[in-house]
Here is the input.
Amino acid sequence: MKIYKTYLLSLGIAGCLHLASCSTQNNQNTETMTVNNLAQASQDVHSYSKPKEAVAKHLDLDITVDFEKKILSGTATYQIKNLTKTNQIIFDTRGLKIEKVLLDEDTKETTFKLGNDDKVLGQPMFVDIKPETKTVTIHYSTTPEAAALQWLSPQQTAGKKHPFLFTQSQAILARTWIPIQDSPGIRITYSASVKVPKELMAVMSAENPKEKNETGEYKFLMQKAIPSYLMALSVGDLVFRPIGEQTGIYAEPATIEAAAYEFAEMDKMLVAAEKLYGKYRWNRYDLLVLPPSFPFGGMENPRLTFVTPTVLAKDRSLTSLIAHELAHSWSGNLVTNATWEDFWLNEGFTVYFERRIMEELYGKDYADMLEVLGYQDLQHTLDDLGRNSEDTRLKLELDGRDPDEGLTDIAYEKGNAYLVHIERAVGRDKFDAFLNKYFQTFAFGTTTTDRFLDFLNSELIKGDEKLAEQINADAWIYSAGLPEEHYTPASSLFAKVEETSQAWQQGTPAAQLNTKDWSSHEWLHFIRLLPEQMSQQKMADLDKAFNFTNSGNSEILAAWFLHAIRNNYITADQAMEIFLTSVGRRKFLVPIYKALIATPEGKKKALAIYAKARPNYHAVSTVTLDEMLK
Here is the structure.
């Protein structure tokens, strides 16, 4: 029986299969991926670059932020390694205006050309170099339409006084604001000089300032090699609040107090994470709370996680999101998927790690609730995609497609379910030892599904055919749907919620239900258990007792609005419109708009709301919604 697909590890990775030698290598190379490994990075169908021929090692970025024109302009200077003495190096670009390119210290311009323009991949930029070329300097500017950049007016911010800018580079949007070799399999160090209006502060995925200066010029340094999708910049009216020695929060003045309260346990999360899987390798862990148009819950930019304000629930009930982004400091940032077809290696590991952090801090009952909610999300995604869809495999095939199409709950929740399956097969102690060794072995490098499976075989299975059959990698990774042997999580706390839900459905008035001290997770489970079809009286009974329509919790609101739409509960219409026009998180937008367009009347309502809301959304969200609502 074929248990897993074999893969011959590339040179430079194979040598890291022994922990001691790999740790030594990391120390000798100041914790950056070796040039040899960079050169042998897996072929990435979403990048035009050819790192096996000529590859960037370090970036010096020097840019000016122009809010009036909505552009960035300046230079990107790369230190390169010409591995094959080729006469050309290739960068990824999309919508950039390239002025000129210089080599080394020469002030004479070199020739370059842009290739055919693809609507997803953009254009390859072919730069003519010499065999001895050490640096390439690209003079360029962005356009106002750059997909990674969101320019916000003062009215779209919390403070309403100053404009705001943030980037979102994942998956392949870094090329819309920097000419770059835009593949997760290529890691670079970088420095940056960023000039912004004097009343604003700039921060990046690097060493950051703690306060504004008088010049509006900020310097940044990231000494540990990162992939391009973790390049990040934000500019706004920001202040900093320390939480612990290694942790702190950046936010607008109007938001900082709420954020400091909500995320006060960041230090405890960091301690719990290090206890599980080894030392945090990025020095500081800070958060930047963005305006609500941010399209994701969080983005794990090294040293500075970008986070949505929709988790500011005033009761610290949604902070598992922070545990998730912190966990990415190991799975994703430290050990990175070499291509987007292996995205589960980033997100599946991170969901597993996130829940282990939450269990460490708040106990197994708490973590069980998260596991059940995640399992519910996975079942919904499987139904949505089709349980036999190739997109429900962990190892994806995304050639010719936007990698964003692979950013579904399959990578997150099926990936996590597979790791839980392995843990149950070998025991938690053995699995923890395996994961610790995995993170150390591939630290500051990249991996693929096949490399992971080779490592799994050599370090955990060790020739045990019965265990290999039990772990069943082929069924989990290369097959659609969920294998029959998957673990179905359960929660004792949710069992009580289910009893309460049943009592209400059997006629007990909502006001008489015992919901004292319920967490957001219990409320969310309760709402998900509600019948799809309810009378106006039933909807009103719930709303009067629990004030769902006016909840300050975004998770509860988003779940409740789905019931309001299905049951034409117009009492919630105004609150839903306010939510949709102020929140840009794709996780919430897509289900709500999808529910609205299910009926002709609802679609008319959706289009009217979207016309007003679209300017508040990031391109990551509008690409999805434009297609849905056309």
